[in-house]
Automatic annotation (TrEMBL):
InterPro entries: DNA_pol3_clamp-load_cplx_C, DNA_pol3_delt_C, DNA_pol3_delta_N, DNA_polIII_delta, P-loop_NTPase. The gene is holA. Residues 20-130 form the DNA polymerase III delta N-terminal domain. This is DNA polymerase III subunit delta. Keywords: DNA replication, DNA-directed DNA polymerase, Nucleotidyltransferase, Transferase. It holds the Pfam family DNA_pol3_delta. It catalyses: DNA(n) + a 2'-deoxyribonucleoside 5'-triphosphate = DNA(n+1) + diphosphate. GO terms for cellular component: DNA polymerase III complex. Residues 214-329 form the DNA polymerase III subunit delta C-terminal domain. The keyword Nucleotidyltransferase applies. GO terms for molecular function: DNA binding; DNA-directed DNA polymerase activity. GO terms for biological process: DNA-templated DNA replication.
Amino acid sequence: MEVKAPQLTKQLSKQLHPVYLVHGDETLIVEEALDHIRSAARQAGHSERMVFDVESGFSWSDFAAEAQALSLFSDKKLIELRLPNARISDKGKSICEFCETADGETIVIIRAPRLDKNTQKQAWYKAVEKVGVTTTVWPLKPREVEEWAATHCRKQGKSMDYEALQLLLVKTEGNLLATKQEIDKLCLAIDTPQITLEALVNSIADSARYTIFDLSDNCLKGDVATTSSVFNHLKAEGAELLSLSGMITKEIRTLNILWNYSQSGSMELAFQKAKVWKNKQGLYRSALQRLTKTKLENLLKAAHTLDLSVKGMSDENSWHLFYEICLALAGNHQFTMRKTG
């Protein structure tokens, strides 16, 4: 069955299904949904966890064997499948087989980017729908971003007045990862239960240091020296790498989208399709003039490796790789993005 992301927690409290599929483009909301499922699974005794990334070298027979095998311990199993795209080498046969024999002892969580209507008509997707739960995470509308930000603020034990919230969302351009990071910082910096507009403005003035936006803007602008300086300051200040990498990865994805759209239409249409705010269009134009399609594709691959590294699933040094990506995005002609695993 299909369950919307906001209703997933309620569904999990009623019944735990043998398979869950969460797909969509809003990374932070997808992660929140997955965390809810993992938490419910752990509470139900599924504490033996395995993760499979469906990429080059992946074997569906390994997944099938683990899905069918009994746990080595007394605990039940939780298996996560991470799909980088809609293409499945065995056409979903292994997923179908699991759904046919699922007995509740093993739970499978499938994570994927947003799957189109054709993919949702395939047998493996239908099998998941039949015995499990599918959740599609759509990009949030402006009003939904406001509600999400207010909710996240309440989770930190704070409230935020309307004017402060609007200023914050203008500052973060509605990016959820950036909004989360800013709210977390504000909740630590402001002692009062409510974050007012005055408190927000004072906090911004007091923290007139480099921010994630300075890093992003200078990467797009092509200012290699400042990019390097901002990077070093953020790292020294203990900035959260997950948020930093999420923002830069978003910029790389947007540039790839813009490049593709610009080949078949006007840049104005490309900006509209990619949902780029007017005040940043000049920065994207500058980046597209420097970066070739090949370099953009290589940056996207490197960003994927960085994501794995940040999550402890790659031997790459996360900060070193992130620094390389920032320099390459800034377009240092003397710097060549090395191939990553």
